[in-house]
Write a structure and sequence with these properties.
Blueprint (H helix, E strand, L loop, with lengths): L19 H16 L11 H12 L2 H7 L8 H17 L3 E5 L6 E5 L1 H12 L11 H15 L2 H37 L5 H20 L4 H16 L3 H14 L2 H6 L4 H44 L7 H11 L2 H16 L7 H4 L6 H7 L7 H15 L5 H8 L8 E2 L8 H8 L1 H5 L8 E11 L4 E9 L14
Antiparallel strand pairs: 1-2, 3-5, 4-5
Helix pairs in contact: 1-2, 1-5, 2-4, 6-7, 6-9, 7-12, 9-12
Length: about 475
């Protein structure tokens, strides 16, 4: 589709004039009035309503200065004329278009399709407005559970969309903290502390949004439950899977090209799992790192500002002002005097304030026992190493211990032998190893209604079965 065609040939021209900030404010207000959270959908967008929105924006002194000369007395007729001219430009360049109300056939206005999309962008960039963030992680889990209960293809497509939003939400948060760090650096260069942004982050964003996202909506909290539901979806028999594939292709034709020769149902489950894994393994650590960098940078600048007052009324400020006014000989004399006084000083960090203790290295050196290497010390080190490695199993080692039990068919965790501590650890790690990237090529794990009880632990029971050779995914492509 060609975008810059009549009537959108000069679509962005209203945003290139000196009053572009006023125009952007009007577009943001129109979107909130018509499509925002507080919109009155029974109210149509008339010409008088648009003029009212423009005149309300002109009431802001900062925006009014963009339209009229500062200090100029402006009559009400001139304001209305200016508002009418701005309305004409928005209509002429494709932001607004005429619309006839189908109920009473009155001529009204509405935001064009492109006008609605770009005015929504202006509205979303406004961080001061109240926002209710979707709980996408919980929504993805609930949509998957609904799919298991109802076999509705739309629920699986919704789960895929919610999972994709999880990654996007975290990426937006990462960009937000990077923006805060850049703003903090600019404020520091101007010898200011960005109190407003920091208070907004602590009181509004962190308490109401990030605390929930890192705890109740944490991707790590729901990852295990989502993986279990995905395994149930993958365990559908061939007839049910074929029926779901047909429904999915009917509801979302784009899946045929995306999945290529694979089952659309299996492709969607793999995509959901990969996005959840990306959120847990990549985006969440990046978010915590960026948040930590911002708080640490702000704390460092705050400590520096509290310890050194850069204002002109401080002792340091008065001294620097005196140095600038005095001749070079007086400056060198003062600096020489300060150098002689500091030459005999010892710089040391105060241990009481920073909770650091000044260590006496000589006393520590005397307290250290001599290093003795004999047969008893070697035996003690060997025993400690053996104890540390006794129950350290890799997924491959667990799989090697499980595969011999699957030669005769499926087996449950309760049927696995638990004769030694090594057997107990193998049963505990069996499901995790089966769902690892290597384990999925060898076996499948399906949750059952029973419980596995041993003298050492009690947990949900799972059925393990070997993956058939003809359906095992290829090691290089991952396609069955």
């Amino acid at each position: 589709m060609m975008f810059f065609t009549p009537p959108r040939e000069h679509f962005f021209r209203p945003l290139t004039h000196d009053n572009r900030e006023l125009c952007a404010t009007v577009l943001r207000a129109l979107h909130e009035r018509v499509h925002g959270v507080n919109a009155d959908y029974a109210e149509v967008l008339t010409r008088e309503l648009v003029l009212e929105v423009i005149q309300h924006a002109l009431a802001d002194p900062a925006l009014r200065a963009l339209a009229f000369a500062t200090g100029q007395a402006v009559r009400a007729e001139e304001e209305r004329t200016y508002a009418s001219e701005l309305l004409r430009k928005l209509k002429e360049h494709g932001w607004l278009e005429d619309y006839r109300d189908p109920i009473d056939l009155r001529p009204t206005l509405k935001l064009s399709r492109a006008g609605k999309a770009f005015s929504e962008t202006f509205a979303n960039l406004d961080d001061s407005r109240a926002k209710t963030r979707q709980r996408n992680m919980r929504s993805a889990r609930k949509a998957l559970l609904a799919f298991i209960a109802t076999r509705d293809a739309d629920e699986l497509l919704d789960a895929h969309e919610f999972a994709s939003r999880v990654v996007q939400d975290l990426q937006d948060d990462i960009e937000y903290f990077r923006h805060l760090i850049q703003s903090l650096t600019r404020e520091a260069l101007a010898q200011k502390i960005a109190w407003n942004e920091f208070n907004d982050f602590i009181e509004k964003r962190f308490a109401r949004e990030y605390a929930v996202r890192l705890v109740a909506d944490s991707a790590e909290r729901h990852r295990g439950q989502i993986n279990e539901v995905l395994e149930e979806v993958r365990a559908l028999d061939g007839e049910q899977r074929a029926l779901m594939d047909a429904h999915l292709l009917q509801r979302a034709p784009w899946l045929e090209q995306a999945a290529q020769s694979r089952s659309p149902l299996l492709w969607l489950t793999d995509r959901i799992e990969s996005m959840v894994e990306a959120a847990c393994g990549l985006k969440l650590p990046m978010l915590r790192s960026e948040m930590n960098n911002y708080v640490r940078r702000f704390t460092s600048l705050l400590r520096q500002a509290l310890s050194l007052d850069y204002s002109a009324e401080s002792s340091l400020g008065r001294t620097m002002t005196w140095l600038k006014k005095k001749p070079e000989s007086a400056r060198e004399s003062l600096l020489d005097t300060l150098a002689r006084r500091l030459a005999t000083s010892e710089i040391r960090l105060p241990g009481g304030i920073l909770r650091w203790t000044v260590r006496n290295h000589e006393a520590e050196a005397q307290a250290q026992a001599p290093l003795v290497v004999d047969e008893a010390s070697r035996l003690d080190a060997l025993l400690r190493r053996a104890e540390a490695e006794a129950f350290a199993f890799s997924d491959r080692q667990v799989l090697q211990g499980l595969l011999p039990h699957l030669k005769d068919g499926p087996i449950s965790l309760a049927a696995l032998p638990v004769n030694t501590a090594e057997d107990a650890v193998r049963v505990l790690h069996a499901v995790g190893a089966a769902r690892s990237s290597e384990g999925r090529r060898l076996m499948q794990a399906r949750k059952t209604a029973g419980q596995v009880r041993t003298p050492y632990f009690q947990a949900d029971d799972y059925e393990l079965r070997a993956t058939p050779a003809d359906t095992a995914p290829d090691r290089t492509t991952g396609v069955p």
